[in-house]
Amino acid sequence: MFQSRDEIRQVYQQVWRKMQAQQLLEPMEAVIAEVIEIHPEYHALFEDGEAIELREFTPEQGQTNPFLHMGMHIALREQATSDRPAGVQRLYQKLCANKGRHEAEHAMMECLGEALWNAQRNGQEPDMGAYLACLKKL
User: Fold this and answer.
1) Are 108 and 135 in contact (CB under 8 A)?
2) Does 2 score more than 60 pLDDT?
3) Per-residue pLDDT averaged across 125-132, rounded?
4) Potential cystine with 99: which of 64, 68, 103, 106 (Cβ 3.0-4.6 Å)?
5) Helix (H/G/I), strand (E/B), else coil: 21
6) Are the C-beta atoms of residues 15 and 32 closer than 8 Å to each other?
7) Would you tell me how many other CB atoms lie within 10 Å of the CB of residue 84?
8) What 3-state class would DSSP assign to 3?
9) How far apart are CA 115 and CA 102, in angstroms?
10) Nearest one of 30, 28, 35 to 70, comparing CA atoms
11) What is the chain's mean pLDDT, rounded?
């Protein structure tokens, strides 16, 4: 399921509104809500409502894209749940035990980001072997 940037941002905003109203969340919404909750630095952005959907977050402006950051948390959790690539679940659990879940995910993001950047730069699929090797070094 591929979604546009705007659709993804709308999903986050919808989850935020449901969280504020204490409404029942679908399973994937609950994952998104957990990630939003551990990032209070982004809560003010969600309070801006639809304006967040239009905002640009660029490294040139010294900004981290909150949607990319939270999306990487979600991707790592999905990888760990499905053990894809094979072996990532064990590494995830080990890092979480050593660093705590949030910090483990932040450390893992460096490896995931590097794997995705290299894949994009080379016009290839991500090198899962290199990705797992990077994770093992953490």
Assistant:
1) yes
2) no
3) 97
4) 103
5) coil
6) yes
7) 12
8) coil
9) 20
10) 35
11) 93
Burial of 25-39, coded b for 16+ CB within 10 Å and e otherwise, reads: beeebebbbebbeee
Give the distance from CA 117 to its chain's centroid.
Answer: 15
Q: Under a CB-based contact definition with an 8 Å cutoff, are residues 113 and 72 in contact?
A: yes
Give the single-character DSSP code of 2: -
Digit-coded pLDDT (tens) for 97-119: 999 999 999 999 999 999 999 99
Give residue for tokens 């449901």: 18
CA atoms within 13 A on the CB side of 102: 8
- So where are the chain's domains? 1-55, 65-138
pLDDT at 59 over 70: yes
CA atoms within 13 A on the CB side of 28: 7
3-state secondary structure 26-83: CHHHHHHHHHHHCCHHHHHHHHCCCHHHHCCCCHHHCCCCHHHHHHHHHHHHHHHHHC
